[in-house]
């Protein structure tokens, strides 16, 4: 959707020179169990010439498939690097994202697609295909092999080695839809027809748009409750109440959409409505301008627009 979701984590620049090493062997030794921050000991003198993959501990979930949307904890390092390339276990100012408080929000996840160019390059995630959810996996290789041209963009020499440690927490099939009999829409709300892996057809009723947020759960799922701080996986379609024209749908792209909910990463109507819903729900939302893009609008969305969304919640992490 236009400016709806933001990338969970971006590679950070690393001021590192190229490796000059005569030794060859593992770049890193990893200890700790999946679900807890790993301890990674780097060999500053080790070199690497080809990609290697090691499943450090095997989970008992479903196997990751090509194109699955993955929610993962991850650390990316390079020997001699001044900082981690990626680290979901820590904030940018060095604070732990793990809390013993049962009421604390879930730790943000890195979200990418398996074996597809997305938040991470295809070469990094392709080795995860076939690995069970719940596994911890170490991948080592050169920056050139694993990042391609992105290596130079983040200040890495293509010949230097990289270490990635992934905890695969969830794998979501992006073709998933909410299943079950859809409830009739309440009076004054748009009609919704959603069939298969296509954008929903949303028919705007006659009359003025609601001046307050309206929402209805059209299909009730029986999955996990959506909590503030969860990384949410959805398929959605959005139309403008004025004219009923579709301005965006995740079905028009390869893969669904993902974002952290309840923390201001999305328009306020989404945060307000989707926290407390459940995986498997189909939710209809009518958002007045103050719950959407306000007076300014956004890209193809004019200012002061009332927006209508149909959202299938397909997973959380």
UniProtKB/TrEMBL annotation:
<dbReference type="InterPro" id="IPR001179">
    <property type="entry name" value="PPIase_FKBP_dom"/>
</dbReference>
<feature type="region of interest" description="Disordered">
    <location>
        <begin position="16"/>
        <end position="109"/>
    </location>
</feature>
<keyword id="KW-0413">Isomerase</keyword>
<feature type="compositionally biased region" description="Polar residues">
    <location>
        <begin position="85"/>
        <end position="100"/>
    </location>
</feature>
<dbReference type="Pfam" id="PF00254">
    <property type="entry name" value="FKBP_C"/>
</dbReference>
<feature type="domain" description="PPIase FKBP-type">
    <location>
        <begin position="229"/>
        <end position="317"/>
    </location>
</feature>
<dbReference type="GO" id="GO:0003755">
    <property type="term" value="F:peptidyl-prolyl cis-trans isomerase activity"/>
</dbReference>
<dbReference type="InterPro" id="IPR046357">
    <property type="entry name" value="PPIase_dom_sf"/>
</dbReference>
<protein>
    <recommendedName>
        <fullName>Peptidyl-prolyl cis-trans isomerase</fullName>
        <ecNumber>5.2.1.8</ecNumber>
    </recommendedName>
</protein>
<keyword id="KW-0697">Rotamase</keyword>
<comment type="similarity">
    <text>Belongs to the FKBP-type PPIase family.</text>
</comment>
């Amino acid at each position: 959707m236009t400016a709806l979701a933001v990338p969970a984590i971006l590679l950070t620049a690393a001021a590192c020179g190229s490796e000059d090493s005569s030794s060859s062997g593992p770049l890193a030794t990893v200890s700790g169990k999946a679900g807890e921050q790993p301890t990674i000991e780097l060999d500053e003198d080790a070199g690497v010439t080809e990609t290697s993959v090691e499943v450090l501990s095997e989970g008992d979930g479903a196997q990751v498939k090509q194109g699955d949307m993955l929610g993962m904890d991850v650390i990316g390092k390079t020997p001699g690097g001044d900082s981690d390339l990626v680290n979901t276990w820590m904030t940018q100012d060095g604070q732990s994202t793990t809390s013993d408080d049962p009421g604390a929000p879930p730790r943000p996840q890195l979200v990418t697609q398996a074996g597809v160019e997305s938040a991470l390059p295809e070469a990094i995630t392709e080795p995860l295909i076939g690995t069970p959810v719940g596994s911890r996996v170490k991948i080592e290789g050169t920056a050139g092999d694993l990042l391609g041209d992105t290596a130079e963009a983040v200040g890495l020499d293509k010949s230097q080695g990289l270490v990635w440690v992934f905890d695969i927490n969830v794998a979501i099939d992006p073709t998933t839809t909410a299943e079950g009999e859809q409830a009739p829409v309440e009076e004054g709300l748009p009609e919704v027809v959603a069939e298969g892996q296509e954008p929903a057809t949303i028919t705007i009723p006659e009359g003025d748009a609601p001046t307050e947020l309206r929402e209805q759960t059209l299909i009730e799922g029986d999955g996990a409750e959506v909590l503030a701080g969860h990384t949410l996986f959805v398929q959605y379609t959005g139309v403008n109440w004025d004219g009923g024209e579709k301005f965006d749908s995740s079905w028009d792209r390869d893969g669904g959409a993902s974002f952290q909910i309840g923390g201001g990463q999305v328009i306020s109507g989404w945060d307000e409505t989707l926290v407390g819903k459940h995986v498997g729900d189909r939710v209809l939302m009518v958002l007045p301008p103050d719950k959407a893009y306000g007076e300014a609008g956004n890209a193809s969305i004019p200012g002061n627009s009332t927006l209508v969304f149909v959202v299938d919640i397909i997973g959380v992490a």
